[in-house]
Amino acid sequence: MNPKFYFLPQEKQQTILNAGFHVFSRNSYRKSPMSEIADAAGIRKSLLFHYFRNKKELYLFLWDTCAKITVEEMERSGTYEQTDLFGSMEYGMQAKLSLMRRYPDIGVFAVRAFYEKDPEVSSDIQRSMGRYLAVHAEKKLQKLDPEDFISGIDLQMMYKEMYWASEGCLWEYIQRGSMDTDAMEKDFHELVDFWKKVYIRKRQGDKR
Amino acid sequence: MNPKFYFLPQEKQQTILNAGFHVFSRNSYRKSPMSEIADAAGIRKSLLFHYFRNKKELYLFLWDTCAKITVEEMERSGTYEQTDLFGSMEYGMQAKLSLMRRYPDIGVFAVRAFYEKDPEVSSDIQRSMGRYLAVHAEKKLQKLDPEDFISGIDLQMMYKEMYWASEGCLWEYIQRGSMDTDAMEKDFHELVDFWKKVYIRKRQGDKR
DNA sequence: CCTCCGTTAACCGAATCGGTCAATATGATG
DNA sequence: CATCATATTGACCGATTCGGTTAACGGAGG
After folding, report:
1. Contact in structure between B88 and B137 (CB atoms under 8 Å)
2. A179 in reach of chain B (CB within 8 A)
3. Could you tell me the distance in Å between the CA of residue A98 and the C1' of nucleotide C20?
4. Would you say A155 and A141 are in contact if contact means Cβ atoms under 8 Å apart?
5. Å from A3 to nearest chain B CA?
6. Model confidence pLDDT, tens digit, residues B41-97
7. Are A96 and A107 in contact (CB under 8 A)?
8. CA triplet A42, A44, A48: central angle to 5 degrees?
9. Is 0.85 topped by the overall pTM?
10. Would the Cβ of A26 be found within 7 angstroms of any atom in strand C?
11. Can you tell me the distance from the alpha carbon of B13 to that of B7, in angstroms, rounded to the nearest whole number?
């Protein structure tokens, strides 16, 4: 990638990145034309080729950038330091939302890239994935105290259910095409509120 | 559409339909080549054009077929007659699963077609949608008796949460690319079980 | 042998693809 | 104004792919 790209004004860089995320998130690698990305970025195709030698380079650059800023955002938000389940859930959501406000299509792009089958890029994606695959939050489950939740509840199932619900909510917005992050934030917040009310054990002496 | 298509053996019809659902569900209308569909169906492109005059005709035929068999399956399964919320949820899921066993990509196809923007087909899709848009299950909510559920629960939120969770679960399978309907059935069933345990009010004198 | 018909190979013109490059626009400097 | 470096573009290329057509193939039945 041409280092001159980094000297572009932040805003222009972001526009180009978003154009890439957008097109690659809606089509497979092979069916994502550079021309379409250039159009979405408001520049000419030739300029896009000026910054990135070829399509593959742009694609992998987007993938790396995606991983980089995701990790940055997660650390910045303090999600990892949260010990409470619902707290970390909400923090994680906030991080995701803040990311999606700057890069609306980054989430779908990441998923699609991860499952991309095209031999021209799939191996590179999978290889670099090994580096980024952090020890996922599943560990959280073992630290949960059953006494904090309503009696008899299957904590693993609860966690899975919560995960699916938030993904399903996200999916609804994705399908619609418009990424109204404010509405999403509201929905997510209501979800967490609902979970708290339903799943948390009410102890005698608790306020509320 | 060439009426000869109907005289094909059921199995071959289904193979062609599935090939169409598959390709159109993974790419936009414009980026779904007829050749790819023919390949997926195991026939030559020219034969595909023998049954369907052009791409648009095939696409709209798939859309109509999709609507038709969905309605059929819903009626056959008896989902509409279910009065109990979780019962209708489970019946609906079973109907969806039975559909997806025969037509693995029909669900994603339907969603994608509904949001398709290409001017060559979007207007036709939207127009015919008006005919199929049944009075959705949302009415169910008003018939629910709050006494049946744990006290203080927001029923609307509960319903929304359940919907999202099932969609999120579905999404996970879609992304993975493989439609393991048996595993899905297991997951869905466990979900409903979980909901029942958590949301239903336990009355004194209830068995279990 | 012929006829019928499902099926195909070969082909067509147009469009699109990734990528190149000479030319132009822009802006700073002297 | 002239000069020069840099940012950006238009025009172009060869290869491929697209939707769609058509003549011919090949097997079954008479």
Report:
1. yes
2. no
3. 39
4. yes
5. 33
6. 999 999 999 999 999 999 999 999 999 999 899 899 988 888 888 988 889 889 999
7. yes
8. 100
9. yes
10. no
11. 9
